């Protein structure tokens, strides 16, 4: 919870203000999650502060909400290209992705439970950045990400807006965005590292190295035979366990 509050502070997500007359603040709550690896072992514990977006009113504190995500078909197609052309395949994770989105609407939120500011208990937070749970959060993050990567020469795919490509002479790189998971497939290691540097300079990133577990799908490779396999073993085991089978 302290880590999450530190992220809020680092990203300058809100300011404390007195609630203006006629406005009603939206609430917020803590959500706890256990992240597991492909073998089901506990990787880390996460606490996330989530706005109660269901109390937002259209036209007042949100307008557009649509945000694209890459399709599983695009993911499989990129995997086929990786196997066929023996591309480098790495993955990165955006920490607190939604906090990167800028807000254009005026949104007031109650202070988080357990973390009320001393001497400012009666004040509310005016949000400057989008926060998880807001109806427009996903859209604002996508718009920010798109703006940054296209500025650095990436071209968005017309049929799947979350797939990008950059060509540099005979070298090329594909970038697949699925909310806050980023998959990088490149014909050149230097281009791959340049892209990682660009992403890390603009967002708080976690470099996960060679891709092995993406979107709950296990990836295994045998580069000597140009083979790449996808397995959903972890998901299948979870379903079997749920039904005691």
TrEMBL record:
Signal peptide: none
One Pfam family it belongs to: RVT_2
Source superkingdom: Eukaryota
Residues covered by the Reverse transcriptase Ty1/copia-type domain: 11-245
PANTHER family assigned to the protein according to its UniProt record, in alphabetical order: AMIDOHYDROLASE 2 FAMILY PROTEIN (PTHR43383:SF2), NODULIN 6 (PTHR43383)
Record-given protein name: Reverse transcriptase Ty1/copia-type domain-containing protein
């Amino acid at each position: 919870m302290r880590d999450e509050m530190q992220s809020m502070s680092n990203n300058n997500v809100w300011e404390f203000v007195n609630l203006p007359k006629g406005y009603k603040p939206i609430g917020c709550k803590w959500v706890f999650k256990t992240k597991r690896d492909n073998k089901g072992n506990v990787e880390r514990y996460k606490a996330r502060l989530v706005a109660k977006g269901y109390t937002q009113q259209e036209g007042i504190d949100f307008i557009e909400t649509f945000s694209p995500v890459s399709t599983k078909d695009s993911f499989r197609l990129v995997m086929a290209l990786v196997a066929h052309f023996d591309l480098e395949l790495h993955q990165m994770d955006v920490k607190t992705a939604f906090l990167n989105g800028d807000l254009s609407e005026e949104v007031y939120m109650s202070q988080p439970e357990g973390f009320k500011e001393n001497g400012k208990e009666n004040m509310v937070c005016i949000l400057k950045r989008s926060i998880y749970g807001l109806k427009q959060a996903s859209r604002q993050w996508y718009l920010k990400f798109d703006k940054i990567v296209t500025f650095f020469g990436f071209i968005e795919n017309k049929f799947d807006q979350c797939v990008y490509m950059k060509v540099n002479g005979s070298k090329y790189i594909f970038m697949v965005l699925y909310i806050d998971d980023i998959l990088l497939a490149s014909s050149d290691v230097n281009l791959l590292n340049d892209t990682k540097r660009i992403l890390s300079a603009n967002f708080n990133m976690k470099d996960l190295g060679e891709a092995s577990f993406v979107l709950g799908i296990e990836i295994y490779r045998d580069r000597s035979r140009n083979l790449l396999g996808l397995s959903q073993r972890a998901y299948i085991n979870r379903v079997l366990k749920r039904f005691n089978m």
